């Protein structure tokens, strides 16, 4: 998982993987079938280790604004942890791939779209609860905050620290529609 996260799908070779795992290529193929299946397992492990905590945040926060703010702050903290690669594996692991890796790119794009859909759903709940004006552009607002989070991952990969990303999150929250 860490190799794919750090280097990306295509830049991580079978020999990199087997050296890191301390196994031979035939053992890797016997256990996972191929590099793509191993990658999918690595992505699932990434999600299982907390990268997919959005649903918990959305369930725990009483308001849509609180949920989005906590999501942004959580992203700023998670993207800059010193004990793992910076940025989000789902955003960065397969952004530049050759046509042979289009399945990998499409799979990550689906995960990002699912995240955006959950965010849009939480904002819709806020509109329904009267927290936001009835004419709120829910899709536009969800796209804006999704873009902020994805931009924060690029900034983290470029070396931006936690304070910088927290400041970006705070600035993004100033764009929240007035009640």
Structure description:
There is one protein chain. The chain is mostly helical. The protein has a domain of 121 residues: Orthogonal Bundle (Tetracycline Repressor, domain 2). The chain contains ten helices and no strands. The longest helix is centred in the middle third of the chain and has 27 residues. The protein is elongated. The model has no long low-confidence stretch (mean pLDDT 92).
Radius of gyration: 18 Å
Order of helices and strands: HHHHHHHHHH
Strand portion: under 5%
Corresponding CATH superfamily of the domain at 53-173: Tetracycline Repressor, domain 2
Helix content: 55-70%
Biggest sheet record: none
The CATH architecture of the domain at 53-173 is Orthogonal Bundle
* Uncertain spans: none
CATH topology of the domain at 53-173: Tetracycline Repressor, domain 2
Total of helices: 10
C-alpha geometry: elongated
CATH class of the domain at 53-173: Mainly Alpha
Q: How many strands? A: 0
Distance between the termini: 43 Å
| Helix vs. strand class | mainly alpha
Structure at a glance:
The protein is mostly helical and 179 residues long. It contains ten helices and no strands.
Keywords:
single chain, 179 residues, mainly alpha, Tetracycline Repressor, domain 2, 10 helices
Tell me the layout of helices and strands.
Elements: H1 2-7, H2 14-21, H3 25-32, H4 35-51, H5 54-60, H6 64-79, H7 89-92, H8 102-128, H9 138-157, H10 162-173
Helix pairs in contact: 5-6, 6-8, 6-9, 6-10, 8-9, 9-10
């Amino acid at each position: 998982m860490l190799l794919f996260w750090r280097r990306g799908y295509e830049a991580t070779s079978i020999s990199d993987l087997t050296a890191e795992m301390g196994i031979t290529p035939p053992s890797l193929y016997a256990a996972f079938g191929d590099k793509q299946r191993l990658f999918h397992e690595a992505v699932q492990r990434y999600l299982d280790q907390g990268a997919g905590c959005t649903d918990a945040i959305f369930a725990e926060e009483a308001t849509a604004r609180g949920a989005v703010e906590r999501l942004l702050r959580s992203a700023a903290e998670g993207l800059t942890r010193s004990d793992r690669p910076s940025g989000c594996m789902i955003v960065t692991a397969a952004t530049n791939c050759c046509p042979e890796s289009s399945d990998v790119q499409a799979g990550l794009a689906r995960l990002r779209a699912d995240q955006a859909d959950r965010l849009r759903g939480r904002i819709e709940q806020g509109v329904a609860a009267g927290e936001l004006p009835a004419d709120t552009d829910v899709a536009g607002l969800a796209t804006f905050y999704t873009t902020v989070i994805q931009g924060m991952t690029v900034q983290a990969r470029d070396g931006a620290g936690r304070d910088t990303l927290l400041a970006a999150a705070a600035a993004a929250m100033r764009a929240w529609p007035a009640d």
